Amino acid sequence: MAWHSYNTYRKGLHYHSQLSQTAALLDSSREAIEAFQRVRLGKLIRHAYYTTPYYRELLETDTPDITQIPPLEKENIREHLERLCSDRFTEQERIKNATGGSTGTPLTFYQGRYYWNQRNLSVYYFDRWAGWNHGEPQLVIWGAPADIKGDEDWKHRLNTFWRNQYWLNGFHLTDEEMQATYERMNRCRPQTILTYPSSLYQFATFLYENGLVHKWSLKGIISSAEMLHPHYRALAEEVFRTKVYNRYGGREVGLIAMECTEGRMHINCRDIYLEIDSPNPYAVPGEILITQLNNYVMPFIRYRIGDIGILSDEICPCGNQLPILDDLLGRTTATFRTRTGALVHGGYFTQQFYGIEGVSQFQIIQESLKHCVLKLVINKDWTEASRRYLVHGIQKVLGGDVVVTIEFVEEIPLPTSGKRQFTISKVTADTD
Predict the structure, then answer these.
(1) 3-class state of residue 328 by DSSP
(2) Does residue 255 have a pLDDT over 90?
(3) Can you name the residues that pair with 286 across neighbouring β-strands?
(4) Residue 33: CA atoms inside 13 Å, Cβ hemisphere, count?
(5) Topology of the domain covering 1-332
(6) What DSSP state is assigned to residue 80?
(7) pLDDT at 413
(8) Predicted confidence band at 423 (pLDDT cuts at 50, 70, 90)?
(9) Domain boundaries, the chain
(10) How many alpha carbons fall within 13 Å on the CB side of residue 145?
(11) Which CATH number is associated with domain 335-425?
(12) Nearest Cα to 185, choosing from 127, 256, 137, 131?
């Protein structure tokens, strides 16, 4: 099978035994999982203490009580990026990555090859809960520019070939593209879909409103990167006649939790040590703190990811004993509407801020079909060229005659959810 050949070539002959070991751990008892985490947590903290300037200065010992370690804030990463990197790795061994600024500000950080291999093993394990299996055809409705660079990018095309994936750009879902994808999938018969929730909802709406009944039989749908609203799930499960599995993660730390067949969100304890910053994490919601157990290039210890959650102490009826994230609050994005009725995924606007050093925070608000407000917190690197670039990027998808008003502000206040809304649309389908 092409998928097996691909992974053996990329990751070595022992890759499949590693996947079996991953499944054995994640299927084990709560006691075994907690013991595994204690060992890995201690190893990571000792590594951070001895090899990173940031933690060497912050910690008084290599065996601290983790609850006494100050949370890692996004501002800490921006201010101490190099000091957070381990001196055990060369610059060539670092893999640069970045968020799109879902908390209002893009964030740059580093990861390593070991992190990515371990991350992928866990993703493969959890995605099987939704029916995915190695090499089976999969429809991917996605749009992150770090993951897809267009049909002309041979690396992307080769990667999708090995993985047996078919991509639909979630940033720009036109009726023509959705119709073509529907027809192509009737021939290719995907087994699963991996998608943004809002893009899934848009595709399901298109099929429903046009009376298009697909011929493929899906095992499941994996929804990730945004809040899965109840009406998104309901329509998708009706149209596609299968269950939607919610997946929670972040580009900084990888897969955090995944929904099982019983609808509970299980924490990925193999890669993640998760805390709730609350006096009672089982009763009072609090901010989620993540320690990434596999990123030795740049340790993330008690990273405040920007979401709010609460834990459950139940053992899930599905039989898996991984801890349960009972509720997740504050993850959302907006879909913008154009005068022609086309929808633009909110992630498109996030993409425009990649590489712009002059912006510390941003928020774009679609006030009407003719007017957008762009709120910016800028710094010394701001230029007039950046202003023109951002305005052009907005008008490119919403219309050249859309008025973009830029407001320079000192701060963009957080909403009560604790999760900054970086895209807001006040336009509905009924807007004239």
Answers:
(1) strand
(2) yes
(3) 309
(4) 22
(5) Rossmann fold (3.40.50)
(6) S
(7) 79
(8) confident
(9) 1-332, 335-425
(10) 14
(11) 3.30.300.30
(12) 137
**pTM to 2 decimal places:** 0.77
**CA–CA dist 337, 327 (Å, integer):** 30
65-74, 152-161, 194-203, 341-350: least confident range: 152-161
Distances (CA, A) of 187 to 166, 216, 352, 431: 12, 8, 35, 37
Q: How far apart, in whole angstroms, are the C-alpha atoms of residue 418 and residue 414?
A: 6
- The confidence score (pLDDT) of residue 36 equals 97
Give the C-alpha separation, 131 to 119, whole Å: 19
DSSP single-letter state for residue 191? S
Cα–Cα distance between 325 and 150 in angstroms, integer?
Answer: 36
pLDDT: which is higher, 244 or 11: 244
Q: Does 419 have pLDDT greater than 80? A: no
* Residue 432 structure tokens: 């004239």
Residue matched to tokens 């691909």: 6
Neighbouring residues of 385: CB distance < 8 A, sequence distance ≥ 6:
none
d(CA 65, CA 88): 24
Closest by Cα among 250, 68, 216, 256 to 131: 216
* Confidence band for 142, pLDDT divided at 50, 70 and 90: confident
Neighbour tally for 286: CB within 10 Å: 17
- What the block records as the tokens of 92 is 């060539």
Q: How far apart are CA 105 and CA 200, in angstroms?
A: 26
**Cα 262 versus chain centre, distance:** 22
**Residue 420 contacts residue 370 (beta carbons within 8 Å):** no
Give the E-state strand segments of 198-295 in sequence order.
220-224, 244-250, 254-259, 265-267, 272-277, 286-292
Structure tokens belonging to residue 373: 């407000």
Instruction: Please name which of 417, 395, 416 lies closest in space to residue 404, comparing C-alpha atoms.
Output: 395
Residue 417: pLDDT band (50, 70, 90) is very low
Query: How do residues 9-58 score in pLDDT, each as one tens digit?
Result: 455 446 678 888 999 999 999 999 999 999 999 999 999 999 999 999 99
Q: Where are the beta strands (DSSP E) in 75-131?
A: 95-98, 108-111
Using only C-alpha atoms, the chain has a radius of gyration, in whole angstroms, of 22
CB contact set of 216 (below 8 Å; sequence gap of 6+): 185, 186, 188, 189, 190
- What are the tokens at 358? 């002059």
How many C-beta atoms surround the C-beta of residue 291 within 10 A? 25
- Residue type at 138 in one-letter notation: Q
Mean pLDDT of 234-245: 96
